[in-house]
Design a protein that fits this description.
- The protein contains one helix and no strands.
- By secondary structure, it is mainly alpha-helical.
- Keywords: Membrane, Transmembrane, Transmembrane helix.
Length: 45
């Protein structure tokens, strides 16, 4: 049986990269959305 310290370390090793990936995906999504909005407003004018 793993100790609480080992479980925390293992969970931390998996959670940190997942959070980083979600952060990058969110940033890329915001960039894509803003560029789409800019293209839309340019066409409307």
């Amino acid at each position: 049986m793993s100790s609480a310290e080992e479980l925390t370390f293992i969970i931390g090793r998996w959670v940190r990269p997942v959070i980083m990936v979600l952060y990058v995906v969110r940033c890329l999504g915001l960039i894509a959305t803003s560029s789409r909005e800019q293209a839309r407003t340019t066409r409307d004018q």
